Every structure is written in C-alpha cells, then in structure tokens.
From TrEMBL:
Domain of life, source organism: Bacteria
Cell compartment(s), UniProt: Cytoplasm
Protein name per its UniProtKB record: Phosphoribosylformylglycinamidine synthase subunit PurS
Organism listed in the record: Sulfurihydrogenibium yellowstonense SS-5
NCBIfam families: phosphoribosylformylglycinamidine synthase subunit PurS, PRK05974.1
Keyword Cytoplasm: yes
EC assignment: 6.3.5.3
Entry GO CC: cytoplasm
Length: 80
C-alpha cells in the first residue's frame, strides 16, 4: 500500500523558497503570479491491506517524524 504525504508551509509562515520562485516566474513574464508555496511530497510504502489501519499509521508517522505541525500543513492519501 502506498501512503502519499503532501506537505506545505502553513498560511502566514515565511516561505523564502516560494517567494524566490514567485519572483523568478514574474521575471520570466508571468505577471499574474500572486503567490507560490514550495512544499514536500513524500511516498511511504507499507506492507498492509487494511486501509483504515494504514491511515492511522500515516497520521502517527506524520506527527512523529515527517511533519513539523508548528509550521506545516499536510494531507495524506492512501492508495491500495
């Protein structure tokens, strides 16, 4: 089973990478770019057939090792 983590800075948290990308895009002529957030995408493969259990494990992984919940928001997708 595949667990996908989509992580991005929380609203209001300074994102220097996002700002740099936004400025680069504007300098390339993409004047309608308002804001950019740069995040992380992580895949974790687990040996499980129980989707609900995998979701609970994913939440624990996020809390304990993958996400800094003080400054990051995240979404989880579990793919069978």
């Amino acid at each position: 089973m595949l667990i996908k983590f989509f992580i991005k800075p929380r609203k209001g948290v300074l994102d220097p990478q996002g700002r740099a990308v936004a400025e680069s895009l504007k300098s390339l002529g993409f004047d309608n770019v308002k804001d950019v957030k740069v995040g992380k995408y992580i895949e974790v493969y687990v040996d499980s057939t129980d989707k609900e259990k995998a979701i609970e494990e994913a939440k624990e992984m996020a809390k304990k090792a993958i996400v800094n919940d003080l400054i990051e928001d995240y979404e989880i997708q579990v793919v069978e």
